[in-house]
Write a structure and sequence with these properties.
Number of strands of chain A: 7
Strand content of chain A: 35-45%
Structural class of chain A: alpha+beta
Oligomer: homotetramer
Largest sheet of chain A: 5 strands, antiparallel
């Protein structure tokens, strides 16, 4: 008798939409890649807001949590995009660790009809982020805090 | 009798210096991470120029080479930086493949005395880049071309 | 007997919406002002698209028109904005000249209910822009062309 | 008998140098104009530092002065610039008012020989800025404070 393992629940996915502008493109007429990280950072924040987590300027006051700075990022660029394109960033949390988590992004080009096809993958990115508090007695020093259980529950 | 293997020659390293500005920092008062990729992209271009490779707008005319777009990037963030810091980006080519290469960056904070210490590593990044030409009949399509031998010789 | 002067027709207004992100803000926690110009430039392009003008990469092919570069800009900053705010950029063409035009922007904060009040004016800006073609025999040189009558008709 | 009016002393000028990078340019292959404001903002801060004013994160602690936010800016774009160019931003304070001041910028292209000619003016900009403190009881509200006499003396 075989047992089918209980499949892990699919992680929550939040979609953030971005219009590519003229000024986002470089002399090769394609998106200048640092802009993808700008959009991904916004997608990260919107993910938490959509999941019901208060904005960081509130959590800084209520619990000292100033945000989720990046520890490590790994991105793969698959196709180019240019101005006029609308991109969808599909964001989820792929893994929860003790003091960090992996936030995953799939950036897809929206077709003219409003849908997206797998073939239109533009880039994908896995980030390791932490939940951070200020290090006492410093201006800019930060330290990782344990994953807040309530935030993990909201985002899974 | 043992033979010491001939050590691989150290790759050529070019240093690109960046001053961190107020506007490069976010409400957490530290460098907003997409700016590191902005600086790294500039360091990549300066690396080739310092090695004697003509600017891409010239190579586009002479040999159809429009630049070195990014295929894959993996960055690790070690320490924060803030405005007032001067950063040194140490750039080299860690590996040459058939149609791509690995460009490596180590971003260090310059100490007050103008030196840098290993302890001051801010972030490091390995990028896979290609040498690109335009795909005929398209506006923004690009394709990888084989590593130009003369450029490889200049940069090793 | 008095004559009421015929009022000038109100110019066409197009609204472009922008969400302020964490990375758009500086260590003073407010929008770092160059980002307003980034958004205004996008609003300028969307204005023309909404009015029915084809994108510049099409007009470059069909009529040599590469875009509407800026000649002069005058901006007044009234209130600060920060991340979490949604801004509406109200764009119109305030004046048509022979070889240039004045594009006007009023950036307002959207209230929680989706409306905007005059009291929520964040900044306003008047730009002088031209319709540009490439200068022959140069890479980056541009020259002003006369206002295209069809585009003027679409945008008034 | 005629009196020659005492000529006003020339204001102090500080030069800030900027290399134009590939990613600073747009699909028209010229500097995307919001980047000029990015550089001008850095030139503004360097002006004060070069004049001997402490960085704003220090003045925030010692006297509540958080920086010099922009109230009004007026820029004129004269020539285009592109990557490979080195720009000099010549910064001075053109006028001191009660609670604001006019900071003036002239952005010139450095010629190959390291000099700049008046003919190489790229853009110029007059900004009205204030010295700002935080408005009590707010996160992002700011208010103008009177021009600090010591800073005025250092910068004139």
């Amino acid at each position: 008798m075989t047992e089918t393992p209980t499949p892990a629940a699919s992680p929550r996915v939040v979609i953030h939409t971005v219009r590519v502008e003229f000024g986002d493109c470089d002399p090769a007429r394609i998106v200048w890649f640092p802009n993808f990280f700008r959009w991904i950072d916004a997608a990260s924040r919107h993910f938490f807001l959509q999941c019901g987590v208060p904005p960081w300027h509130e959590t800084e006051k209520t619990r000292g949590l100033i945000g989720t700075p990046l520890v490590d990022t790994h991105a793969r660029f698959v196709k180019t995009a240019s101005y006029g394109d609308t991109l969808e960033i599909h964001t989820s949390i792929a893994e929860w660790r003790d003091k960090s988590f992996v936030q995953r992004y799939r950036v897809m080009r929206q077709s003219g009809e409003g849908g997206t096809a797998a073939a239109d993958l533009i880039m994908e990115c896995d980030e390791v982020r932490i939940f951070a508090a200020r290090r006492e007695g410093t201006d800019t020093g930060i330290r990782a805090i344990p994953i807040p259980a309530d935030i993990k529950a909201l985002c899974s």
